[in-house]
């Protein structure tokens, strides 16, 4: 029923988009049309779950060393965003400068890098690199993305400390593009998780970060690579490699050099505001295996969060979907997301627990494309899903456990 309705909307809005594209913007290309294809669905308030109350944690006020993580969803750069980044004096930061202070106040920041950064690679092979130019061949948009590798340095400059590379666009430039992306991540000094290079197929799937002396392991996986084969096993699959995912989490939890494990699965039903049963089951299995938190993505819209008491009595945290961070997708729900703040405390016993979570609602606006702290309907939508109590203002002091102050 839902997919039929979505299909009708998609077909209708594609016609509209094609017509509008021809009339309004002679440079509009197939990527723009495909981006527009996803417009047109109106938000049914009944399909958007509402938070039932504050989300607080039993260990909120436990003394110890605190670390606060800022996490955002997909860096998914449709053609207008790439064109802006390649021509603006501010480059990629023009897309997120409006929310950069929201990362600066956290100890660590995470994003999902949705697509390769593989200079000189087209979907079918290699080609002369055009430089910072959207040519639709080396640097391209939907359905197969590729970004100029200067994106990685721009994310680092914005304060990001770790990215996920396991997502359905990981192989948009095939295995060689994944290799080239990893070379660029390594040379930029950006930790990444969820993919590995054919030059080192024994490399660990996880990344490590350290803040305030607390060592956090990050593990990403994806539900799919959009049907593109992965013959060398370069991308960690959340479901086909489920046993590897869970055993890796447990090994990291048991590693004396790791204080906490954060898992970032790329999963779920696109444009659905509620997690499906397989995600719920896998999230709980990940937490039971030893993860402290599970931060999901891919549906392009925000999904709820919850805490879950594990079989060994820990309070774990799941946010099923962070939504888009920066993308060209249309519609209120796809332009509304959040910066998630996850507060952790490492006690004198060495154990790390969640002390609280907050959300800073953000929205993406076009021309110039930029993310800002959300307003109006966008603010209301994210607040409906995650609740008023846990919301944090743009200029408020970052405290993840205000009940302890
Ligand atoms: Zn995705």
Keywords, please?
disordered N terminus, single chain, 405 residues, binds zinc ion, 24% strand, 2 domains, Purple Acid Phosphatase, chain A, domain 2, alpha/beta, globular
Structure description:
By secondary structure, this protein is α/β, with parallel strands linked by helices. About 25% of the residues lie in helices and about 25% in strands. It is built from 10 helices and 14 strands. It has helices at about 1-25, 30-35, 80-85, 95, 100-105, 150-155, 175-190, 240-255, 275-290, 375-385; strands spanning about 65-75, 110-115, 160-165, 190-195, 205-210, 215-220, 260-265, 295, 300-310, 315-320, 325, 335-345, 350-365, 370-375. Strands 1, 2, 3, 4, 11, 12, 13 and 14 form an 8-stranded mixed sheet that branches. The protein has a 6-stranded mixed sheet with strand order 5-6-7-8-10-9, sandwiched between helices. Helix 9 links the parallel strand 7 and strand 8 (about 295). It starts with a helix and ends in a 19-residue tail after the last helix. The relative contact order is 0.16.
Short description:
The strands form two sheets. Strands 1, 2, 3, 4, 11, 12, 13 and 14 form an eight-stranded mixed β-sheet that branches. The protein has a six-stranded mixed β-sheet with strand order 5-6-7-8-10-9, with helices on both faces. The chain starts with a helix and ends in a 19-residue tail after the last helix.
């Amino acid at each position: 029923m839902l997919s039929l309705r979505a299909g009708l909307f998609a077909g209708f809005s594609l016609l509209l988009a094609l017509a509008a594209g021809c009339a309004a913007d002679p440079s509009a290309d197939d990527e723009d049309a495909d981006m527009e294809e996803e417009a047109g669905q109106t938000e049914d308030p009944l399909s958007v779950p509402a938070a039932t109350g504050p989300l607080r944690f039993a260990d909120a006020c436990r003394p110890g060393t605190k670390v606060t993580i800022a996490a955002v969803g997909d860096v998914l750069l449709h053609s207008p965003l790439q064109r802006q980044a390649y021509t603006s004096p501010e480059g990629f930061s023009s897309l997120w400068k409006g929310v950069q202070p929201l990362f600066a106040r956290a100890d660590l920041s995470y994003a999902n890098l949705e697509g390769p950064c593989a200079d000189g690679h087209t979907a079918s092979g290699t080609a002369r690199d055009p430089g910072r130019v959207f040519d639709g061949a080396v640097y391209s948009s939907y359905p197969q993305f590729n970004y100029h590798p200067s994106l990685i340095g721009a994310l680092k400059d914005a304060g990001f400390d770790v990215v996920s590379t396991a997502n359905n666009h990981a192989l948009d430039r095939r295995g060689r593009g994944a290799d080239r992306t990893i070379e660029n991540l390594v040379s930029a000094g950006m930790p990444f998780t969820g993919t590995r290079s054919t030059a080192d197929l024994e490399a660990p799937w996880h990344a490590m970060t350290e803040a305030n002396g607390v060592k956090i392991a990050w593990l990403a996986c994806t539900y799919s690579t959009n049907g593109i084969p992965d013959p060398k096993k370069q991308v960690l699959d959340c479901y086909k490699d489920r046993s590897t995912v869970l055993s890796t989490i447990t090994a990291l939890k048991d590693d004396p050099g790791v204080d906490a494990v954060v898992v970032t699965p790329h999963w779920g039903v696109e444009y659905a505001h509620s997690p499906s049963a397989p995600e719920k089951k896998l999230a709980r299995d990940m937490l039971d295996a030893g993860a402290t938190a599970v931060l999901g993505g891919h549906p392009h819209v925000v999904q709820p969060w919850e805490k879950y008491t594990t079989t060994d009595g820990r309070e774990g945290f799941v946010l099923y979907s962070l939504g888009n961070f920066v993308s060209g997708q249309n519609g209120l729900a796809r332009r509304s997301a959040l910066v998630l703040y996850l507060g952790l405390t490492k006690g004198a016993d060495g154990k790390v627990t969640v002390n609280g979570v907050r959300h800073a609602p953000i929205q993406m606006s076009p021309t110039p494309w930029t993310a800002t702290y959300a307003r109006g309907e966008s603010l209301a939508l994210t607040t409906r899903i995650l609740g008023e109590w846990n919301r944090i203002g743009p200029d408020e002091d970052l405290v993840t456990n205000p009940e302890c102050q």
